[in-house]
Structures are given as C-alpha cells and as structure tokens.
Amino acid sequence: MPNESSVSRFAQEAVRGRNLIYLAVADVVLFLIANVAYGAGDQHGLRNTVSNVTWVLFLLGVVLLIVFGIIALGQLIWRRGKARGAGGATS
C-alpha cells in the first residue's frame, strides 16, 4: 500500500468532478449574494459588510476552483501518460 500524505489524499478528494461542480455552484451563489447585498452601491453598514464578506468568499472560491481545476487536469494528463506508457511497454 503506497504511503500517501494527508495533503495528497485531500487533493484527490477535492478535485473529483462532483466536488468541483459543488464548488462552482457555491461560487455562483456567493457572487449573486454579493451583488444583491451591494444593491445600488451607496449602502452602508450591514448590507455593505455582507457584500464585502461574500465577495471575498467568492474570490477565494474562484482561486480554489482554478487551483483544483489545474490539479485535476494534471492528474488526467498524468494518468493518460501512465496508461500509454504501460500499454506501449507490453507491445
């Protein structure tokens, strides 16, 4: 059994297709909440704070979506390269 770190196990679970879809949907919802809370742009107080917090969470979600998407793409390329290498070695 290979010795995997907890970080690599987390990365493998995080970049599964379903989890990426959930993250994308959550990101869209955060974007909508941030824009609705912002309103006309001249609000102060709680609405402005809610808008700012959800905007930061949205941006964090976008960064995570990009990072996990790159990891998933890298894993896909690595698996395909490994499969081709194994197939070519036996031929």
In short:
The chain is mainly α.
Descriptive keywords:
91 residues; mainly alpha; 0% strand
Characterization of the model:
There is one protein chain. This protein has 91 residues and is an all-alpha fold. The protein has 3 helices and no strands. It has helices at residues 6-14, 17-38, 46-90. Helix 2 (17-38) runs antiparallel to helix 3 (46-90). It is elongated and about 60 Å long. The chain starts with 5 loop residues before the first helix and ends with a helix. The relative contact order is 0.12. The mean pLDDT is 82.
What series of H and E elements makes up the topology? HHH
Query: Could you give a short account of the major beta sheet?
Result: none
Query: What share of the residues lie within helices?
Result: over 70%
Q: Judging from the principal axes of the Cα atoms, what is the shape?
A: elongated
Report how far apart the termini are: 28 Å
- Gyration radius over CA: 20 Å
Uncertain parts: none
Mean pLDDT: 82
Layout of helices and strands, plus pairs?
Blueprint: H1 6-14, H2 17-38, H3 46-90
Helix pairs in contact: 2-3
